[in-house]
Amino acid sequence: MKSVRDDAVAICPLPPSDSPLSCCETPLVPGRALRLLLLGVLLSAMGCAQGRMFTPHNLPAEWHARRTSNVKTVDLTRLASATVPNDEIAAGDVIEVAISAGLGTEATVDTYRIGPQGAIELQNIGQLEVGGLKLPVAESMIKTALVNREIYRNPNVVVTMKERKEIEVTVVGAVEKEGTFHMRSGSAGVLNAIAYAEGFAEDAGTVVEVRLPGGREIESPYDEPAVADSMGGSDHALVEHRVPVRTTGPRNLKIDLAS
Asked: Which of 53, 123, 155, 192 is 20 to 30 A from 75, alpha carbon to alpha carbon?
């Protein structure tokens, strides 16, 4: 019988099924060498496993999510966008500012259109950024500015929303109510437009096409001085800023709600 070292392992091929299991004359492989061999096999297996990692670009077709054909089963919340509250001042809105020295005194009333950056130009005060503020907050800001500049000691300020900037959105196709809707500027997202049209029709597909007409893009605000124009023969003035603009062409966007 051959002696076997403690750190060596005998490797034998499997004998035929009809022969007894016995060790062959294969040279002994040291245990350390075998451990290195097994480690190499293990690392190779791990490398193969890592090679089966997929990205969205090479994902096998059988693993793709099934496409949705019924738009009513699609989660539309991802189409939601930020909206402008009705009681909040936004660019393009027209507000009326009434200032008086106190109750019972005649007020000075002026009308302003909110600039692209949310600012107005008040006489004797200068530029104030009121965009994004609610009307009472804008009143407080104007009152504080008047007091700080020692124009009034305790003025009464009333800010009124005269005209909200709106845009026209036309919705046609597989919706319950086709038509043109007037929507608050800054709130005319796809989801709101679908809501105005009372939702999708039963036979609606999952692709929504959005057509954006050509418009004007503002280059840099407040490059030119404020210009006052009369409003319908009124004693009040509509104060606004004229800024350089450039024209953009129409664009078409397609949104697949099932993707």
From this structure: 53
Q: pTM surpassing 0.70?
A: no
94-163 carries CATH number 3.40.50.2300: no
Helix and strand totals (H; E) in the chain: 3, 15
d(CA 17, CA 85) in angstroms, rounded, equals 84
- pLDDT per residue as tens digits for the range 36-58: 555 555 555 555 445 567 776 77
d(CA 238, CA 169) in angstroms, rounded, equals 27
Domain ranges, ordered by start, for the chain: 8-50, 75-82+166-256, 94-163
Six token digits for residue 167: 């845009």
pLDDT of res. 24: 44
Cα 42 from Cα 30, distance rounded (Å): 19
| Cβ 181 vs Cβ 204: under 8 Å | no
